[in-house]
Amino acid sequence: MKTLEEKLEYTFQNPALLENALTHSSCANESRGRLHSNERLEFLGDSILGMVVAEHLYRTYPDLPEGELTRIRAGLVCEESLVEVAQQLELGTHLKLGKGEEAGGGRTRPSIRADAVEAVLAAVYLDGGIGSVRKIIRKFILSKEAASAAVRDYKTALQEIVQRESGQVLRYRLTGESGPDHDKCFFFDVELNGAVVGSGQGRSKKEAEQMAAKAAICFLEARDKEQKP
User: Contacts for 172-181 with beta carbons within 8 Å, 24 or more apart?
Assistant: First the structure.
């Protein structure tokens, strides 16, 4: 348990909450009432995770529409994403499973590990409040790498559109940046055959390029519609 707390960078005031978060229903059933399963914590953790991620996306991407925000959130809180977090925490080694579930490979079962992550988040929330759980979610789920992976790859989509005609030259150009080092904002133009077809900004160069590519796609699609008879 101490090893897990070290990875979380959080020490529980009430260790029983963490023990509960790691207790699968199979183990609780075999205990004949001595232990409670993590299902209630999982329920709470799911809502806390969704809220923290939604708030982060709302503040980070002010220009994205509701549908796009929903899609990105789904990618960040899905089972695959939570299993990656479980792997980082080596959560499988700490789970309390019943004999049958243990024998059936439950310690590596994706759904069990993902559910346990949500339960642990709820346990942290109940023990230390929203600030404590927000730090953990930011570290393991809302990292720049994770968030960038969730955003649609507009650059690839734009490249596919441009390649429909041979001889096209696409180039991204940094046009400026602002803000202190810990809160930079970058500005990019994307040029097609020397002409600017989209501009974007973001908290990283990659994000700014993606937003410029998105703007270029909208521009090219609108232009193609106008050119059609």
Answer: 172/209, 172/212, 172/213, 174/205, 174/208, 175/199
